[in-house]
Amino acid sequence: MNRRENLKLLFTGSVGAGLLLTGCEPEQVAVQGQLINGGTPGGRTEEEKARDAKLLSETFLTEDERKKLDTLVDIIMPADSESPSATELKVTDFIEFIMKDQPGMQTPMRGGLMWLDFEADELFGKKFNELSQEEVIKIVDLVAWPEKATPEYSGAVRWFNMLRNLTCSGYFSTEAGWKYMGYMGNKPNAWDGVPQNVLEKHGLSNPEKYLSIYLKPEDRGKVAEWDEEGNLIG
C-alpha cells in the first residue's frame, strides 16, 4: 500500500466522511495526542486530568496485539522522505489510549486482531506475527480496498477501516503529522496599514509625520524599542 493512495482512499469517501475518529471532537483528539506524546494538556479540569491519568495507568493491549498493530500502522502510514512512520510517532500508544477512552471500541478491535491470526493460519499455517512482510501484505490487500473486497471479508473490511481511521487520527494529532499536512495553525500576521488604493477611494491619506514609524514590510520581524518617555527608538 502506498501512503498517498491510502490517504486518498480515506479522504475520498470510501471509508467515510467527517472526523477521522468517529465520536471524538478535534480538541479531544489533539489532547489525547499530547498525552500520549508526553505533553502537558492545557485547559483541563482536575477531574479530566485524573481520568486521563487513570486511563494511562491501565493496559488494554497485550504485547502480541501491540506487535500486530505496530506492523499494520506502519503499513498504513510508513515513513517516507517527508515524515516518520506511525510507530515512530507512537500511534499504537494512541490506539491503546482510545481503547480505554472509548470502551465500546474494545470488542471490535480485539475481534479484528484475533481475525488476523485466523486468516494467517488459513492462508499460511502460521500466526500473524510470524508472517513475512510479503505474507502480511497479502492479508492486508484482502481488506484494505473496500470496493475490491469480496463479501466474505465485509466484517474484516469494517475493522480495517476502523484501524485506518485510528491510525490517521493518531498520526495527524502529532506535530510531525501537522507538518506533513501543511497545517500552519494560528500565527500572527503583519499589518501594513490601510492600503493606499483604499485611502484614495475615500479621499484619505496617511499623515506625513507618521510615515516614518508605520510598519514597513522590510521591518517585519524587528522588535520595537521605546525609551523611558514612550518614544519609539530608531
Regarding quaternary structure, how should these chains be classified? Answer: single chain
Mean pLDDT: 80
* First and last CA, distance: 58 Å
Q: Helical element count?
A: 11
Strand portion, in percent?
under 5%
The level of helicity is 40-55%
Task: Tell me about the largest β-sheet.
Answer: 2 strands, antiparallel
Radius of gyration: 26 Å
Question: Major sheet: order of its strands?
Answer: 1-2
Structural class of the helix and strand makeup?
mainly alpha
How would you describe what is shown here?
With 234 residues, the protein is an all-alpha fold. It has two domains: 3-181, no CATH class; 196-233, no CATH class. The chain is 52% helix and 2% strand. The protein has helices at 3-11, 26-36, 46-57, 63-76, 91-101, 106-124, 133-143, 154-171, 175-181, 196-201, 208-211, and strands spanning 225-226, 232-233. A two-stranded antiparallel sheet has the order 1-2. Helix 5 crosses helix 8 (154-171) and helix 6 packs across helix 8 (154-171). It is elongated and about 85 Å long. Mean pLDDT is 80; it is low at 7-41.
What does this entry show, briefly?
The chain has 234 residues and is an all-alpha fold. It has 11 helices and 2 strands; from the N terminus they run αααααααααααββ. The chain folds into 2 domains: 3-181, no CATH class; 196-233, no CATH class.
Comma- or semicolon-separated keywords:
single chain, 234 residues, mainly alpha, two-stranded antiparallel ribbon, 52% helix, 2% strand
SSE blueprint and pairings:
Elements: H1 3-11, H2 26-36, H3 46-57, H4 63-76, H5 91-101, H6 106-124, H7 133-143, H8 154-171, H9 175-181, H10 196-201, H11 208-211, E1 225-226, E2 232-233
Antiparallel strand pairs: 1-2
Helix pairs in contact: 5-8, 6-8
